[in-house]
Amino acid sequence: MRLHNTETGAVQPLEGRDGPIRIYVCGITPYDTTHLGHAFTYVAFDVLVRALRAKAIKVRYVQNVTDVDDDIIRRARELNTTWDRLATKETALFEADLAALNVHAPDVFPRASQTIPRIIELVSKLEAQGHAYRSDGNVYFRVDSVTDYGRLSRLSREAMVKVSGERGADPADPRKRDPLDFVLWQRSAPGEPLWASPWGEGRPGWHIECSAMALQHLGDQIDIHGGGSDLIFPHHESEIAQSESATGVRPFARIWAHVGMLRYRGEKMSKSLRNLVLVRDLLQRYDSDSIRVLLLRHHYREPWAYEEEQLQDAQEWTRALQQRSKPVNAEEGAPPPAVREALEDDLDTPRALDVLRQLVEGGDARWRATADLLGLGLGKASSSEMGKTLGWPAPFHDPSNDRRVRPAR
RNA sequence: GGCGAGUUAGCCAAGUGGUAAGGCAGAGGUCUGCAAAACCUCCACCGCGGGUUCGAAUCCCGCACUCGCCUCCA
């Protein structure tokens, strides 16, 4: 398997070390899910994992939920509910949507609110190492304590400051020593969730939760770190700084895999812009195969603009394939080399779809194994394959985690 | 400022060195009392300029233009 690595700009081989492939994909902030852009990202990594497992490569796939976050708190207030209720509900919807799209569950599906002890441990370590400092009840990461902050996004310090300014951030926050320093732990405002910590009652900042969960579940180095390309800066840049500072192991991720952004009506599809095409709504009118085909027709790194015509087109294509596909008795045969080569070439799903079409049209029984590799049912009755998707683990009932949230109102 | 994707017919789009898939739209035809549907046929100087090669949409160099992302965000 060869994948494009954002950090080096090159397509690199994934294999070359022992043990399971460790994959961490940045998950959702559960307050307004699941739009087609989310689906694009998680379907892409679903196919990646399927392709690796089809080669008998062991994979450990972790996908997190960032459920402690400014937006969730704000939205919960708007909806007159609590942040954790909202997060639990939206996460369940997300799981149901992905299961409907035949996306296999990750092996571990942790959420930030249940990783607080780990987060505190990590922040303490960074503070002890001199990578972090306290200021007015908050703890900040000291960006100039690392030499190469900006190496993932390839931005100079000047550029990062400039971009931040243009984006309306406050580089002049007097509590920060450097405009680029970012919050690791913050004092909770009244009504916000809070946990006891060495710095007083507070909550984690954005970025640190992902480092904590990745290190906890995958160790000091991971093989593939994925997510939307909008996360490159500052989120993943900051994860690198935190993780490598804490562990001394670099690179934190051997390959950074970023998925292109989906646009709709001239703008990036985004919760804040409210220009969402929800998977839930599409599933009312289209079958999941058609939606998957639409997504797989686009290479994961390609930014593209959604139009409903494309989905209609994908549906016609999918129906034609379903009609022409001859039933296959068992799960016979492995996918042909052409499919595996396409997927191993930086996950070229458009090419793999074309091979699938040729197999079906040629009456080649290997079409079934190929469709499975791409997560397409193609008329298969609700059988074992579809049953596998029901395995999304409920992430929120682990009593071993010491959650010390106080009634927040 | 950086990074990324892209530029192929009216539109979408495949193509990974051997004289351009497919879909939509359009034109003509078969069929039909008429129409629809279905089926058949037709419709491309591959952004520009160099280079490599027997041969380039495809490889190399340069240029132009479009779009996207960059401390809410998959």
Mean pLDDT: 87
Which homologous superfamily in CATH is the superfamily of the largest domain? HUPs
H/E element order: EEEHEHHHEEHEEHEHEEEHHEHHHHH
Structural class: alpha/beta
CATH architecture annotation name of the largest domain: 3-Layer(aba) Sandwich
Shape: globular
**How many domains is the backbone divided into?**
2
CATH topology (fold) name of the largest domain: Rossmann fold
Task: For the record, give the distance between the C-alpha atoms at the N and C termini, rounded to a whole number.
Answer: 50 Å
Using the coordinates above, name the CATH class of the largest domain: Alpha Beta
Radius of gyration, in angstroms, nearest whole number: 22 Å
Helix content: 25-40%
Main sheet properties = 4 strands, parallel
Ranges with pLDDT <50 over ≥5 residues? 381-388, 395-409
Provide a compact summary of the structure.
The protein is α/β, with parallel strands linked by helices and 409 residues long. The protein has helices spanning 36-54, 70-78, 83-100, 116-128, 157-166, 208-218, 232-247, 279-285, 288-296, 308-324, 337-344, 349-361, 367-373, 384-387; strands spanning 2-5, 10-13, 21-25, 59-63, 132-135, 138-141, 182-187, 202-204, 222-228, 253-259, 262-264, 267-268, 304-306. The protein is built from 14 helices and 13 strands.
List keywords for this structure.
39% helix, Rossmann fold, four-stranded parallel sheet, RNA-binding, disordered C terminus
Tell me what the structure shows.
With 409 residues, this protein is α/β, with parallel strands linked by helices. It folds into 2 domains: 2-268, Rossmann fold; 286-378, no CATH class. The chain is built from 14 helices and 13 strands. It has helices at residues 36-54, 70-78, 83-100, 116-128, 157-166, 208-218, 232-247, 279-285, 288-296, 308-324, 337-344, 349-361, 367-373, 384-387; strands at residues 2-5, 10-13, 21-25, 59-63, 132-135, 138-141, 182-187, 202-204, 222-228, 253-259, 262-264, 267-268, 304-306. The strands form 4 sheets. Strands 4-3-9-10 form a 4-stranded parallel β-sheet. A hairpin with a 2-residue loop joins strand 5 and strand 6. Helix 6 crosses helix 7 (232-247) and helix 11 packs antiparallel against helix 12. The radius of gyration is 22 Å and the shape is globular. The termini are far apart. Residues 381-388 and 395-409 have low confidence and may be disordered. It binds one RNA strand of 74 nucleotides through helix 1, helix 2, helix 5, strand 9 and helix 7.
